[in-house]
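Hi L.,

You mentioned the student needs an example of a multi-chain input paired with its predicted structure. This one should do, with 642 residues in total across all chains.
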Amino acid sequence: MASKLATELEPAKYSQETESLVKRLAGPSSGKAGLAKDQTEINRIISDASKGSKFYENEKKKDKELTVRIDKILKQRDEAINGADIAKIEADIDQLICKIESQRDLTQIIVHVDMDAFFASVELLDNPDLKGKPFAVGKGILTTASYDARKYGIRSGMAGFIAKKLCPELIFVPNHYARYSELSNQVMDIFHRYDPDMCPAGCDEGYLNITSYCEEHSMTAEECVQDMRETVFRETKLTMLAKICSDKNKPNGQFQLEFDPESIKSFMYDLSIRKVPGVGRVNERLLDAIGIKTCGNIFTQRAVLSLMDKQFGLVFLLRTYLGIANNTVQAHRREERKSIGAERTFASLENIQKIHDKLAEVAAELESDMDETGWTGRTVTLKFKLDTYQVCTRAKSLDHWVSKKEELYAIGKELLAAELPVKIRLIGLRVTKLKDLRDTATNGIKRFFESANKDESPRKKARLDPEEFEDNDNMDEAMPGYHENDETDYKLEDDSLEGDEVIDLTNTLEDVSGGETAVSQTRRPPHSTSNSHASSKLEPPKRPRSNSEAKPVIKPISKTLEMHECPICGKTLETDNQGLNAHVDFCLSRGAIMEAQGSATKSIKDTSTYKGWPKPESSTKSNSKPSTFGKTRRPVASKRGK
DNA sequence: GCGGATCAC
DNA sequence: TATGGTGATCCGC
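Structure written out for the whole complex:
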């Protein structure tokens, strides 16, 4: 279990590349599994291409810091274990597990749906010639890669020049955000039919509680999701993948997709801890250090986790082990927003005047966004990234509300002045301690306007704004970052289901949080600072919203079975990836022919003036919700001993 | 309240 | 030949 012991003494080897560094360089999506064979070569190419760069050096530095941090945690562990009554501890935890288990609620059917390689699919839709070819969307940093490109190890978030090395024939396709927004709106619109209070997660995925829909339409969860997928394909010609890992207990058992505690636990047992929302690259390594690679290992190592509850968050992990998550789904509410900001990366600058110019641009952009979305705030945070990739933030709280670019710029300049001289490659501004200028309850004037407008939705209002109309064809929500489907690679590798999907083990404990409290909250475990050592605590992701309960949205990894479900016809095939691809192509072409005329809008790509990433507002869609902006699954907390 | 970190998308 | 942008949360000060 001990991965590399921290002490990197090895003066001999100058820059020894640790396994973790190579993995880190491979990118955040570097899940696990897989293609050990090729992946090694791929990682080598990526590493070689990066070597020597400032980016590389920074990654190396972070990797070393993490190694040191892990070493401290291991020492803490050893001290804690020494003399501890492990048997007693485990017995206590087993009781805790029973308590948590007793709160499992299988009454809600919650699904996570996700468009398949969204950006790439849209490009393919608009340019069929790309079919079968390795292509990537985006320049500089790739927003997504086609399935054919993924075979070369190319992933979203990867630098274009690295991708080119992995696949010289790679075709680069520019982003067409307006198109993605358009289709995203269509898809979200469809999702809302199944759950009006669905929670969008980025532009191409969402969480839906389809319990009511199934009841009202006398449908099973499978039928409902199948119907949803067909509707999405019929109306957008895009494929959507969804899988239901949960189902409601039916009166008359005839469950194919078992939905009982045992089946769920069985599913979770071999699931990589990395698949758990909130467990990123860092926490994956920390957990690995104490012998936890899979959710099943959580149980195995429960005593250690208990002794180090502060660092890892025992309850959160036990819930994960049991496959118990939050069972509520709710759209984000406007008032939940905590911040709004803008930032830009550029070729490193040292010249203060030029830096100020960049700052002014960011300030103007932020003012524009704040104005369009109706926010103002009291704290301004300047962010800048040094030439070395080290990120720094400097904040200032004020006694009044700020939102004008002149002031944002002035504050940013002041904060930056204290840091000079600097050579930076990014600068940004963020405003927090927000006040909602559209809050009808606290703003009489606004209320008047809104009622006069007869439209409660801020979004529609925005739509009336000419300026907004222009650069906004976006979607409801903030466009997600890249990383459309980081896990798809693995899935493909595993021969598992393609796409992503799904999910959810819905269960939940209505409230471990509020209720019985026997379970020490997952949410915010008491933290005593005991050791000042590095620690990290895992906390429950807040994903689907609402509660703070953990919510394991797990994307199923294939069971190594060679069974594939066609995303189009839903048929299960026993074949390999190529066979599946061929079948999918067939289904797509047939569907395309059939649906062709209907809404053929092949639409011309809107090369127009799309400005950067989509902004949060907008609409065009009738029923969109108030905007949810980026969501977060956050569980981990970290603390690091410096 | 501030700054660093981690994570998701 | 040059590694993104937006938002959230947590921890230790």
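You could point out the following to them. The first strand of chain A starts at residue 110 and ends at 115. Chain A has a mean pLDDT of 72.

Best wishes,
N.
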